UniProtKB/TrEMBL annotation, chains A, B, C:
Source organism per UniProt: Paenibacillus oceani
The family this protein is said to belong to: Belongs to the Ca(2+):cation antiporter (CaCA) (TC 2.A.19) family.
Origin: domain of life: Bacteria
Membrane topology classification: Multi-pass membrane protein
GO MF terms, alphabetically ordered: calcium:proton antiporter activity
Location in or out of the cell: Endomembrane system
Biological process annotations from GO: intracellular calcium ion homeostasis
Function: Ca(+)/H(+) antiporter that extrudes calcium in exchange for external protons.
Gene3D superfamilies: NCX, central ion-binding region
Protein name: Ca(2+)/H(+) antiporter
Keyword tags: Antiport, Calcium, Calcium transport, Ion transport, Membrane, Signal, Transmembrane, Transmembrane helix, Transport
Biological classification of the source: Bacteria, Bacillati, Bacillota, Bacilli, Bacillales
Domain Sodium/calcium exchanger membrane region, first and last residues per copy: 28-178, 207-345
Signal peptide, first to last residue: 1-22
GO cellular component, one term: membrane
Length: 352, 352, 352
C-alpha cells in the first residue's frame, strides 16, 4: 500500500515538473514541483542503491551512488563552462566538495548517531580517504599560491598538468580500492539482523536498472530546478558565489544527501561515509580536472585557481572531515560539529 | 604538622595581599605577596579538586576545575570589555588558549613523564577534544578571512551569530560528554594503589565547599595581581600584546597550572589533560563568545576578529596539542616539545 | 662474481670522476661520470648500512645512515654560506626536507608496496616523528609570520634563539629515542627469514668502516657533481630556486634515496621510513640551525626566514607524510600519492 503511494507520487511529480518546465509555467510553481519531485526521486535512488549494495557490497554501492550522483553535476557544469561562467563553475565545485563533506556527512552522522550510540566503519578506508582528500587540497592550493608569479600561459600549463595528474591519481585509486586492496578496505559495520526483512525483492539486474533510471530522473529534475534559480537569485538579491556554492550544490547533491542519510539510519554508516567523502573526492579529483581539460576544447581555457574564500572553505572542510572520520567511529555530536561549520561557512558566503 | 603550616601560610598570604591591595602599599611588595598567595591558593584548589574528583570521577573533577578556573578570567575580562580594552581582551583570550594547550599541558606531560615512563588516557576523549578545538579554530579563523570584504555592520552580525553558535555547541558538548556518552569518555588511567593513603578525609559536601572557596580566593588574588601589572609594564617597557597574552594569561591560569601538574605527577594524566584542553575549549567556545555578546549590552560591540599573530599562535597550539594527545599516551619528550613551542611564541610576541 | 664486478665499477667510476674533476675535463663528461659513480657509491652505502643495521638494530642503522648522509650536505652548505649564497642554501634546505619526505619516502613506500601488499612499522615512532616535524614547521613558520613587524636586528636575534632551541630539541630527541624510550620505539617490521642468506659476512668493525668509507666517497662525488651543475643551469636556463630545491637536493640525497628503497624492497620499511623522515628532521632541526649559527662566525649572519613558496612546500610535505605514516602501515598507493605531490611541487618551482 505504502509502496504504491510512493511510486505514484514519484511518477506524478516527475511528469508534472517536466510539463511545468517545458510549458514555461510560473517559476515559483516550477520550483515547488521540482522540489517535491527531487525528494521522491532521491528516495527512489536511495532504495535502488541499497538494493545494488546488497548484491555488490557496501563500498561498490557507495561508489556507484557517488558516480551516478556526480554524472548529473558534471553535465550541468559542462554547460556552464560552454557559456564561459568559470566563476560559477568553481563556486559550484567548491560547494559540492564542502556540501558533501560537511552537510551530507554531518546529517548522516548526526541522524545515524541519534539512533545508534556509536557507529563504526573501516579505519583503513577512512585513513586513505583522508590522504586522498589532502592530495586534492594540495592540488588546488599549489596553483593558487604560485598564481601571482605566473603568466597567464604558465598558469594554463600548470592547470592542465595538474588536471592530468589528478585524473591519473583517481584512476589508480579505483584500481587500488577495487582491485589490489579490495579486501583490506571492506566494511566492518554491524549488519542489522532485521535488514533482510526490509529488503525489496529486486533482482540484481532490476536493481541496477532502477539505479540508472533514478539517476536519470534526478539529473533531469536537477536541471529544471537550477533553471528556476536565476529567477530566485534576482528576486531575493543573492550573490552568485552563494548561489553556486550553496543552492546549486545542495540541490545538485540532493540524491547523495538522502541516500547517505537513509543508509546511516539503517546503521550502514560505512556506505554513508563512502557516498559523502567519495563524492567529494570524485568532484575534486575527477569532475574539476575534466572540466579544466574540456574547457580547452571549447576555446576558452579555464584554469584551476580558486579564490581564497573557496580554498579556505575546502581546506577547513577537509581537515574537519578527516579529524572526525579518522578513528572509524562516529556519534551524533561529531555530526553536529560538521553541520555547525557548514552553517558558519554558509553565513560567511551569504554575507560576502 | 605539614598540613597546619600549609593552611597557616595560605590564610596569612591571602589576608596580607588583600591588605596590601586595599591600603595601596608599594606595588612591588603587592606583587610579591600576591605571587606567594596565588601559589598557596592554587595548591589548595588542587587538593580540593582531587578530593571532588575522588567522588565525582576524574573527568567531572577536571570539568569543575576548568569551570571554576575560568570563572575568574571571565569576570576580569568583562571589566576589561566595559573599559573598551578590546585588544587586551583578545590578547588575554589568545594567551589563555595557548597557555593552557602549550604551557599547562606541556608542564603536566613533561613533569608527569619524568616520573612515569608512559602515561595513558582515554583516546576517544582526546579525539573529541581535538575535533572541538578544530571547531574553535575554524570559528575564529573564518571571520578573520572574510573581514576585508565585510562592512562593520556585517562583521558585527557574523560575530554575534558565530558567538551564539559556539555557545550552543559548548552546551551540547556538555550534554554529550556528561549525559549521552559519559561512559565511553570515562578514564582509563592506571590508579595508584597508594592513592587512598594520601587522600584527605574530606566529605563530599566539604570537598565541594573547599573547591568553591579556593576558586573565590584565586579570583580575588588574580585581580589584585593583575592590578599591579600595569606598573610593571611601564617600568620594564613591555608591549600590551605580550602582557595580555603571556603575563595575564599565566597568572590568570595559575590555578589550572598547578592543579594539572599536581594530578599529572600522581599519574592522573587523564584529569590533567582534561583541565588543560578543557580549559582552552571553555575559553574559546564559551568565554570568548559570551564576551562578544556581553559587549553588545555595554554599548560598544566587540567583534570576534583576531589578529594574524593571535590566530597563528592559536592554530599552532591546537595542531601541536592535537598531534601529541591523539594517541592517548604521553611522555616527557612530548611535554618538552609543547614547552619549546610556547617559548618560541613567547619570544616572538615579546619582540613584536 | 657479481660482487666483484660491482666493486670494480664502484672504484673505477670514483677514480674516473675524481680525475675528470681535477683535470677540468668537459663538463658534460664530468656530469655523466659523477652520476654513474654516485649510483654505485650509494649502492655500497646501502649495503654497509644494512650490515651495520644487522648489528645495531634497524633504528640505529637508520639514524647512522641519516647522519652520514647529511654530513655531506652540511659541508656543502657551509661552503655556500661562506660565499654569501643564503637563498641557495635555504632552497637546498627546503629541497632536502621535501625530497626526503616526498621523493625518498614515496619511492620506498611505492616500490616496497609493489612487492609486499601491506608493510608495517612502529606506530609510536611514526607519531613522534610527526610531532617533531610539526615542531620544525612551527619553528620555520613563526619567524616568517613575524618578519614584517621586526627590525633586521630583532629578526637576527629571534633566528639565533630559535636555532639554539632547535639544536637542544634535537639533542634531547636523541636522548629520548636512543636512551630513555629506546625499547618503546623499536621496530616491529616482519623480518624476512631468507634475510640472513643475503647478508654479507662483514664483521661489526668492518661494517662500520665501510659505512664511513661509503659516506666519504658519496660526499666527494656529490661535491664534484654540484660543481658541474652551474654549467647546466646556464645552458638550460633553470632558476636558482629550482636548481637548489630539486637538482642539488636530489643528488645530495642520492645515498638516502637508494639506501631507503633498497631496505623497503627487503620489507624493512621501518628502517626506510627512519632514513627518509629522520633525514628530513635532521636537516630541519640540526643542519639548518647550525648553518644559522655558523653564519654569525663568518661575518654575514643568515636569518631563518624562508620564502612563502618554500614554507608552503615544507608544510605540505610534512602534513602529507604525517597523514600517510600515522597508521604505521603503508601500501603502493600511498607511495604514489607522495610522488604525485612531489611532481606537482616540482613543476610549480620549475615554472616560477
Amino acid at each position: 500500500m505504502k509502496q504504491k503511494l510512493f511510486y505514484t507520487i514519484l511518477i506524478a511529480s516527475f511528469l508534472l515538473s517536466g510539463t511545468a518546465h517545458y510549458s514555461g509555467l510560473n517559476t515559483t510553481l516550477q520550483f515547488v514541483l521540482c522540489c517535491i519531485a527531487v525528494i521522491f526521486a532521491a528516495g527512489f535512488m536511495g532504495k535502488a542503491t541499497e538494493s545494488v549494495a546488497h548484491y555488490a557490497g557496501e563500498r561498490m554501492g557507495g561508489f556507484l551512488n557517488a558516480t551516478f550522483g556526480n554524472a548529473a553535476e558534471l553535465i550541468i557544469a559542462i554547460f556552464l563552462v560552454r557559456d564561459g561562467l568559470h566563476d560559477m563553475v568553481k563556486a559550484s565545485i567548491t560547494g559540492s566538495i564542502i556540501g558533501n563533506m560537511l552537510l551530507v556527512l554531518g546529517l548522516s552522522v548526526f541522524l545515524g548517531g541519534l539512533k545508534y550510540k556509536v557507529q563504526n566503519f573501516n579505519v583503513m578506508l577512512a585513513s586513505h580517504n583522508a590522504s586522498l582528500m589532502l592530495l586534492a587540497v594540495v592540488a588546488l592550493i599549489v596553483p593558487a599560491i604560485f598564481a601571482k608569479s605566473f603568466t597567464f600561459k604558465e598558469m594554463d600549463m600548470l592547470s592542465t598538468i595538474v588536471a592530468v595528474i589528478l585524473i591519473i591519481a583517481y584512476g589508480l585509486w579505483l584500481l587500488f580500492s577495487m582491485v589490489t586492496h579490495k579486501k583490506e578496505l571492506s566494511d566492518v559495520s554491524a549488519r542489522d539482523p532485521e535488514d533482510h526483512a526490509h529488503t525489496l525483492n529486486w533482482s540484481k539486474g532490476k536493481s541496477i536498472f532502477y539505479l540508472v533510471l533514478a539517476t536519470v530522473m534526478v539529473a533531469f529534475i536537477s536541471e529544471w530546478l537550477v533553471g528556476t534559480l536565476e529567477h530566485f537569485t534576482e528576486t531575493f538579491g543573492l550573490s552568485e558565489l552563494f548561489v553556486g556554492a550553496f543552492l546549486i550544490a545542495i540541490i545538485g547533491n540532493a540524491a547523495e544527501h538522502s541516500a547517505a542519510v537513509f543508509l546511516a539510519m539503517k546503521n550502514k554508516i560505512g556506505a554513508a561515509v563512502e557516498i559523502a567523502i567519495g563524492s567529494s573526492l570524485q568532484v575534486a579529483l575527477f569532475v574539476a580536472p575534466v572540466l579544466v581539460i574540456v574547457s580547452h576544447f571549447m576555446g576558452d581555457p579555464m584554469n584551476i585557481v580558486f579564490t581564497l574564500y573557496e580554498l579556505a572553505a575546502i581546506a577547513i572542510a577537509a581537515v574537519l572531515a578527516r579529524s572526525i572520520s579518522q578513528d572509524g567511529a562516529t556519534n551524533w555530536y561529531e555530526g553536529f560539529l560538521l553541520l555547525v561549520v557548514y552553517v558558519i561557512l554558509g553565513i560567511a558566503f551569504f554575507l560576502v
